[in-house]
Amino acid sequence: MTSGVREPAVAGKFYPANAEELRAAIHGYLQPFPARETSPKGIIAPHAGYVYSGPIAGKAYTVLRGLRGRIERVLLFGPSHFVRVRGLAVPSSDTFVTPLGRVPIDTEAVQQALTLRQVVVNDAAHSREHSLEVHVPFLQEVLGAFKLVPFAVGEATPGEVAEVMELLWGGAETLFVVSSDLSHFHDHDTAARLDAETSRRIESLRFEDLSGEQCCGFKSIGGLLQAARARGMHARTLDLRNSGDTGGSRDRVVGYGAYVVE
Asked: What CATH number is given for 5-261 in this structure?
């Protein structure tokens, strides 16, 4: 990470490094423009390589296609895979770069989040983290211009995540994106059964019944569901598959789900 800029870490690995190829891939995963009566407050989408989880993530991002020019700020939460963090880590940088260009980080919102005891600055937690990066090209292509507030979530409770979300809840201009895969390394049929139960818990806003065995981003999912339940909101499953469905082996799969909270 250079001063002030968070450079791409997984371009060419998790998704195409060429801008034209990346745009084409994203549009291949998006569905036809949806007719919607409400604006979603949040989505939950997976963070694997696009060839595996892109079709499922595309279902989540499709519900945002009517919000271009209306969403001004995206709060992005993903698990910290490489660095141990107590709480939620924000970067010191003011710009996030992908092959599709530069996204400004909402430094004012970052400073506001840092007033909470569980939020810390930790650039190392962001420099290699794919769980956040893979979502930014989707957001750029679907929403156009927006400011980003990225959180790498470590040792935090769903309640601590919910507190951050409540602080920065905003209005219709603010969107929450939670990054999570589902079950890991079961055979296809076992994963399908386990992930279906996880989806039922998400749709029921039962954040207390989620754990790391069911979804690696359970702390962030739990935070969003806790805040949603307090506000009388609803969660809905948009897609539920695993890597055995999208091109990988069916013997040892990773589960992927797409959800909308509104």
From this structure: 3.40.830.10
